[in-house]
Amino acid sequence: YNKKAHILHITTKEEIDFVIDFAKSYGGLDYAHAKMIEYRDKAILYIKPYSESKIYPYLEAFAYFVTERKK
Fold first, then answer.
1. Integer Cα distance of 32 and 10 in angstroms
2. What tens digit of pLDDT does each residue of 34-64 get?
3. In angstroms, rounded to a whole number, what is the distance separating the alpha carbons of residues 45 and 19?
4. Whole-angstrom distance, CA of residue 49 vs CA of residue 69
5. What is the three-class DSSP state of 9?
6. CA atoms within 13 A on the CB side of 65
7. How far is CA 45 from CA 3, 19, 20, 32, in A?
8. What is the C-alpha separation between 29 and 35, in angstroms, rounded?
């Protein structure tokens, strides 16, 4: 039984739960969350020179929305 091959063919809620448990057990979700925050912070630094622009607060708010939403 190959867990990785099985993950590629998920179709039911039970299988989705299996994948989530698999990722949690190996720290995958924590790692992914940390990388997401890292990339968000980098993106905000890249747009910082345009902080006086009218669109800047919307871009910054969008970056936080995407990374902090609960669902």
1. 20
2. 999 999 999 999 999 999 999 999 999 999 9
3. 34
4. 26
5. coil
6. 6
7. 39, 34, 32, 20
8. 10
Residue holding tokens 């902090």? 68
pLDDT of residue 11: 77
Identify the band that residue 1 occupies on the pLDDT scale cut at 50, 70 and 90: low
Distances (CA, A) of 55 to 7, 30, 66: 40, 31, 17
The model's pLDDT over 15-41, given as tens digits with 9 standing for 90+, comes to: 888 888 989 999 999 999 999 999 999
Token representation of residue 19: 């994948």
